[in-house]
Amino acid sequence: MKIQITPAHQISSYRYGWKIEVPRARKGESKWQPVSYYTTLEQAVNSLGHRLVRESDAQTLADALAEIDRVTATLCQALSPQFRVEVDS
């Protein structure tokens, strides 16, 4: 299973769990490369959410809070309604 979250991030399953992948160009081809592995989908989603906020351009607390809202909306749109995304406060 592959779940496209953003153009630069996807979560995919493999035999032992879940992985976050990013595109990498190799020999003129773009392929998805895993950057981290998780045993549950919840762990992968939460980790990706935190990663997206950390990699944002937020400079102030207000910016960070707005970015958290944006990331939460992005994750909710990408995931089916049966999954619940929680943001740590």
Fold and architecture overview:
It is a single chain. The chain is of the alpha+beta class. It has one domain. About 35% of the residues lie in helices and about 35% in strands. The chain contains two helices and four strands; from the N terminus they run E-E-E-E-H-H. Helix 1 runs antiparallel to helix 2. It is globular.
Task: Produce the secondary structure layout.
Elements: E1 2-6, E2 9-14, E3 17-26, E4 29-38, H1 41-54, H2 61-78
Helix pairs in contact: 1-2
List keywords for this structure.
globular, 89 residues, 4 strands, four-stranded antiparallel β-sheet, alpha+beta
Concise synopsis of the structure shown:
This protein has helices at 41-54, 61-78, and strands at residues 2-6, 9-14, 17-26, 29-38.
Widest beta sheet: strand line-up:
1-2-3-4
SSE order in H/E notation? EEEEHH
Question: How many helices does DSSP assign?
Answer: 2
Q: Which structural class do you get from the secondary structure elements? A: alpha+beta
Q: Regions with pLDDT < 50 over 5+ consecutive residues?
A: none
Considering DSSP H and I runs of 4 or more, what fraction of the residues is helical? 25-40%
Characterize the biggest β-sheet.
4 strands, antiparallel
